[in-house]
Amino acid sequence: MTMKKTNKKLNGSITIFLSLSLSIIASLLFYTLESCHLDALIARSEGITYLSLDSLFGQYCLPLFEDYGLFCLNEQGLDLENEIKKYADYNSRTPSSILKNNSSFLNLTVDNVDITSIKYLTDDDGDPFVSQICDYVKYMELATYAQTLCDNSKISTPEVFTTTEAGSLNMDFNSIDLEKANSMKAYDKNSDSVNDTIVSDIVVSEDFKDNASTCIGHIIKNGLLSFLVDNPKDVSTQTIKKDILPSVTCQLTEDGVAESYGYYKDLSETTIEKAYFCEYIYNTFGCYTSPAEDTYLKYPIEYIINGSDSDDTNLINCCSHIINLRLGCNLVYLFLDEEKYADAKKAAELVNVLPIPGARYIARITILTVWAAAEALLDTRDLLSGKNVPLFKSDENWTLELTDLTTFSKNTVSKNKGEDGLSYKRYLELLLATQNNISLYYRTMDLIQMAICYQYNEDFRLSKCVYSLDVTIQYSLPYLLLSKKTKYKSKGHQRYK
Predict the structure, then answer these.
(1) What's the pTM?
(2) Which residue stretches of the chain have pLDDT < 50?
(3) Distances in Å between the alpha carbon of 91 and those of 36, 108, 111, 121?
(4) How far is CA 190 from the centre of its chain?
(5) Which of 118, 376, 385, 481 is the most buried (most CB within 10 A)?
(6) Where along the chain do its domains lie?
(7) Which residues pair with 161 in a beta bridge?
(8) Measured distance CA(336)–CA(338) in Å, rounded
């Protein structure tokens, strides 16, 4: 009897031990399974968040990308939070065909979407805009180089790639003309200056505004234009309203305000960015010699340089800048040319001047300056007619002699053949390099917005184009073994260059 009782107690102990062991093992198994389940749901929610943002930016502004190389999302007409939630709801569905009867294993629901941060293309003093432009120019230059290399190379594909006996491709470098390939190359204070103020924005009392400033501006514009172009009536007089443009509506940071006055934190980086940006402007926009047809202004580059609201004002101010530039270059040439400098010296000795020290020297400098300015007028006229003008001229392309100044007029014929040197558009690129960055960036934004408004949608605003987005999406993750749910917040960031 004692033996049987002992066996029963032993069997009971074993049963309890096994039950506890199985319970612990089952708990561990179920905990592991639940943890894996929640981890899988969290991983899925993170994927849904980024997939939803990708889907949202799939509605990027196509004309802006195709025409100007800018990738961003036009916020106008979109409720971004609802759009993201719509994509998140769609992506959170679990097709029954994948997991069949166990599709509930990865089920989750989207509770709400909260946009925590949003950055537009015009924010941060135009940094997102400039970043995309610089990246675009880098790839554009590589593409231009590759295309130029292909167009000018006489190498055909069969000559470069041959097939070996084993059937694999073998590249024959001997058939490539490396010397020819290596020799090929791909190709700021606010500038509303005193001239711009005189011509377009004369500040006088209201009583004289109509009959004084308008008349003076008209005389200056038409007087100089009549000399520089054959038919001043052909010059565009189109105007724009600037009150909706980014250069007017966007606010600058303190650093941006300082930069607009010529103060830079890192001049080397600024110079590189400006080089890229000026090249982008040169390749994208038109000017007087190649006017634009798809926007409100015919002379876009002139607008970037001067910022006035009319084509003719921008043109005449650009011409004034070029005349000043050419005057300096021509003056250097006259100082270096011994014969012409001697002519100016003799002419100064014949002039009756006041008996003060240095009077003869002042007269000589005045004669040289007038001489260089007259030649600069002819140079600018040549540029507007489509000719090239070198920065520093020689005897072959110098037109005026000192005696020609007495008969100098619009009928004076230039001796410059216009084959060598820089074009009018390249001179504009030199003027662009003197602009401060803020004016350069935001006036370029003005042109892009005007072009999109003109061609596609007049309500388009570049300040509503989203560059980057930070979002938090809250999900409800159901437990596998319980009827409860846990909350999980997934943070997503989207930014495109």
Answers:
(1) 0.75
(2) 101-102, 154-217, 266-267, 269
(3) 21, 10, 14, 28
(4) 19
(5) 376
(6) 132-183, 194-455
(7) 171
(8) 6
